[in-house]
Design a protein that fits this description.
By secondary structure, the protein is an alpha/beta fold. It has 16 helices and 24 strands.
């Protein structure tokens, strides 16, 4: 009888550990945080508090009304269809379309001419498809930049070795090649990005846009606010804005305590931490008590994050042609060194103006009269601090210099800019794998995703966000996957 009572007692204790309604704090109301909250709600775990440092919901999704429709200051494109949770969530809602059925960037030279279409088609295939161009040329420890230049010299440079005019353009086009790679990887230099990538591309069109609604649509789908508001989950009621976390204390007790910079504190059984790896890089030594284990600190160091900037321009009239999608720019060497003399306003580095950091200008389907200039490279932090009036003048200068011969460019009447790198709540745009940190036995994103546990092994602090996704890092669908992953970790823990 005594043994039977002990058996019943132990089973009751076990049930108390794995059932009930735990309290959960989610740090960050971006796609990972919202995905985690919605999945918990769907499984009846409703004792949730979401602490958001910004004064808005969305994280690195930031859709704002500009012109007739919405533009995305953060995540903009849904990349592919297969194995893409974003596409799966919205595929039946008629909210996505390809940016263009025929993707033919217009590449212009700084003397105002559009480069020879036959020649530029081959150049575009190399530069704009840089990632696949080197995919069979991998060398562990090499950077994208080192490997690309090696392949570039051995192929297209070698092919035109007898044509001095084209060789000159090809050498100048290397700047565009690097800037395009930085758009994709989000680094400040292609010497910092590794050629050994574990990213798995979702099949299908890589530039699906939101028909003027903005990427925020997927957040509304996650919370149930779209397409049927009657089915909306009460997640909004759980979100506290302007709550910057200053300390996470997770050792010893069964609960974790989260302190915020306004001297508030919150207790819970679990915390799901979703801010960017840029925040972790800046605060990892002060944010956690006790300190993060060395393996996680090493992973944070190995994962890169820098910044890509957008300048969003609204024009009095839509001066480009209907089949124009993206303009890209190649600077002649002699013009590059003369920019600062022609246009002296704004940051200058090594004698070259910030204007040269504008990589492409792309239209926004579904929102007329708008172009977005994408800015890359190590001048991004300085350009983020530049006034809107100087940015407007610089974009006007660039467009007239490159496109003025073929287009009657109208004036910019409104302009917006992004400041992801400068913002302490993000410290960058999206993560990448750093050159020199390759490890054949360790996936740094997986190490980052490992939860911190108490003495009993229960996960106390859990990690989500795109940088903790080993195959879909740098994307919204990767972030959503991780939010759901950590929510399911808790759901499984508390199943009867």
């Amino acid at each position: 009888m005594f043994h039977f009572l002990i058996f019943v007692f132990l089973n009751l204790c076990l049930c108390s550990l794995t059932t009930g309604t735990p309290s959960v704090i989610i740090i960050g109301a971006g796609p990972a945080g919202i995905a985690a909250a919605s999945k918990l709600f769907e499984n009846s775990i409703t004792n949730i508090t979401v602490l958001e440092a910004e004064n808005r919901v969305g994280g690195r999704i930031n859709s704002v009304k500009f012109g007739d429709k919405f533009v995305d200051l953060g995540a903009e494109y849904c990349h592919g269809k297969k194995n893409n949770i974003v596409y799966e969530l919205v595929k039946d809602l008629n909210v996505l379309e390809p940016i263009s059925d025929v993707f033919e960037p217009r590449v212009y030279y700084s003397n105002g001419s559009r480069l020879d279409p036959v020649f530029i088609e081959e150049l575009q295939a190399v530069i704009l498809g840089y990632d696949s161009h080197i995919s069979h040329f991998n060398e562990t420890g090499s950077s994208i930049g080192e490997l690309f230049v090696k392949k570039y010299n051995a192929t297209i440079i070698q092919k035109y070795s007898g044509d001095s005019k084209k060789i000159k353009i090809l050498n100048e086009a290397l700047r565009l090649a690097e800037k395009v790679s930085l758009m994709i990887d989000g680094a400040f230099s292609w010497l910092d990005t590794s050629t050994v990538k574990h990213y798995e591309r979702s099949e299908g069109h890589q530039l699906l846009v939101w028909k003027g609604r903005g990427y925020r649509t997927v957040l509304d789908v996650l919370t149930g606010a779209f397409p049927d508001p009657e089915r909306k989950l009460p997640i909004e009621d759980k979100i506290l804005l302007n709550k910057q976390v200053s300390k996470i204390v997770w050792n010893g007790d069964s609960q974790v305590v989260v302190h915020t910079s306004d001297n508030s504190s919150y207790n819970a059984d679990h915390v799901i931490f979703t801010p960017s790896v840029g925040v972790l890089k800046e605060l990892k030594d002060s944010l956690f008590t006790p300190s993060l284990p060395s393996s996680k600190q090493d992973a944070i160091e190995a994962i890169g994050i820098a910044g890509v900037m957008k300048i969003v321009m609204h024009f009095e009239t839509e001066w480009w042609k209907g089949d124009d999608v993206i303009f890209s720019f190649i600077w002649r060497e002699e013009d590059l060194l003369n920019i600062a003399a022609e246009f002296s306003a704004g940051p200058v580095k090594n004698g070259v103006s910030w204007v040269s950091a504008i990589t492409v200008m792309a239209k926004v389907p579904g929102n007329p009269n708008i172009l977005i200039a994408w800015v890359t490279g190590d001048m991004v932090p300085d350009i983020e601090q530049t006034s809107l009036s100087v940015l407007k003048d610089g974009c006007n200068y660039l467009m007239n210099k490159f496109l003025g011969q073929d287009y009657n460019i109208s004036a910019i009447d409104q302009i917006l800019k992004t400041t992801w790198r400068s913002n302490h709540h993000f410290r960058g745009t999206y993560s990448y794998e750093r050159a020199g940190f390759e490890n054949p036995t360790v996936r740094h994103q997986s190490v980052l995703s490992d939860p911190l546990t108490d003495v009993s092994g229960k996960p106390v602090v859990l990690f989500a966000g795109e940088a903790s996704n080993p195959v879909h890092y740098s994307t919204v669908h990767g972030a959503i996957e991780t939010g759901r992953r950590e929510a399911l970790r808790l759901i499984d823990l508390y199943k009867h």
